[in-house]
């Protein structure tokens, strides 16, 4: 279907099936009492108690005792005599049995329960720990069973062994409750305390968070790479974090957060940040971009070449300003590592031969004079005014079709600024609304100032109670030095975290007594304050901000170009036009839609109403009755295209 911003992720233990041979399963079904559909009449097909049997969606036959067929096939599968990924499901409403062995089904392993007891015992676990048993042994012996979505619908699955008190209710039990969730959802602490859409939002935003991406991130050259300079491992983690090694390559910071209102710059999820924390490296990131330049070979033997930067003594004074563009180049015509870049600087001084097709007449292509080449340099395009951009790495390679391939990695270091996007692990996203000096922020009696101030109105409607518990657990982890677990359907309890806080002299619910940094007076309420793991997302205002006064226009319509990369204008669309019409601002409409866009002066004949040349109407063969109008160029283009289709629009002129 159409993309709506939601992407499903595989669960941790999920397995996608491959094709199995149908012939043995078909023969087994016939041996177990399935009657071939080709040998039956209509009365047999619709007889009382008869159930249709389907194999991979194709009708196989009829069985009169479907429960016996179901039980026998499951026993064969648990005994290892049938492939573990073959599923069988009884659908009593439709009176059919569905057997599936095809590819593309998502299966999940579960522990088998018989007579209210799990078949897995402690002896099995000891054998696994000693290396005497493997995963496939559990599957072959029927202790663990793979179920697909269809078979799960008819199974009763318990979250834990504690739910198996009543016998003959449950058929399976989860290996661990965290296996229900995938990798993205498994990183969320206390997800079972959040409203479900918030966990879904975090699954999408967790992929946008900056952090450490790999052990070789210092040597690889990607198209674009966002790296956090000082990543932290979270104080409140989950068992999934331990399993996947997220702590080795984290993506976020443990920021001290105060939940309070501080000026009007924190409404609608905006965040107020401590300027001193930003100076110390909170949220600081590096953006690494790749620039590629290929020196091609041509059929006549010539090839593109790099030329050294022009000598200042050989350039006329009028062109001395252009020499600044070549300042980062070395003698080989390639920029040097460690050079600071500005917008428009030339990175590779590439030149292309003017003659690329004709025969070289026996001349050596490498000995062509500079006049036989035209410049086609690779230049740097980046945010103007951003001076922390450097050449990080230069790599040279080549292949048969290209004499050289030059790859450049450009490094840009950024600190958080107004408009940058941050998010906690609970789908609570927001942009930086204000950056305040530390001396103006509230502080506790221990001298602790918050890194981030968050508006409390973000909690009631979102119902992210997991974020509150994370703050409490993180505060407890700070004071006793032990990381806390917020694993789904488990983890450290609120009571245990609160007891640690009380033991160290803090409020049971994590609230602190703060003093205003502006007035020096105590705040009139206790403030919920503690560490929360915040992610910096890749959406930064420096990559998105755009404005234009004058700029390039399209060749065909003479209207401003579109898009930030082409220095385009901001479109006044149909809805904005409707608002201005309803408001009655006709002069503003005229100025936006024509004067500032594609106004064009034309001559129109009053007699025939057609567009004319200056001082001459080709249709009437006269220079009388001409009037000059200003219309949009797109309107004039439309008239001419309609005339090419033998549709003649005419302008009727009336005296004012």
Automatic annotation (TrEMBL):
GO CC terms, sorted? DNA-directed RNA polymerase complex; nucleus
Quote the protein name from its UniProt record: DNA-directed RNA polymerase subunit beta
This entry's Gene Ontology molecular function terms read: DNA binding; DNA-directed RNA polymerase activity; ribonucleoside binding; zinc ion binding
Identify the enzyme class. Answer: transferase
Where would one find coiled-coil regions in this protein?
none
What Gene3D superfamilies does this protein's entry cite? 2.40.50.150, 3.90.1070.20, DNA-directed RNA polymerase, subunit 2, domain 6, RNA polymerase alpha subunit dimerisation domain
The organism encoding this protein is: Chrysotila carterae (Marine alga)
- Please give the CDD domains that the UniProt record associates with this protein: RNA_pol_B_RPB2
Q: What does this protein do?
A: DNA-dependent RNA polymerase catalyzes the transcription of DNA into RNA using the four ribonucleoside triphosphates as substrates.
Residues in domain RNA polymerase Rpb2? 53-114, 135-177, 568-652
Q: Where in the cell is it found?
A: Nucleus
Q: Name one GO biological process term.
A: transcription by RNA polymerase III
Q: Which PANTHER family match?
A: DNA-DIRECTED RNA POLYMERASE I SUBUNIT 2
- Tell me, in one coarse class, where this protein mainly resides: nucleus
Tell me which residues make up the DNA-directed RNA polymerase subunit 2 hybrid-binding domain: 184-566
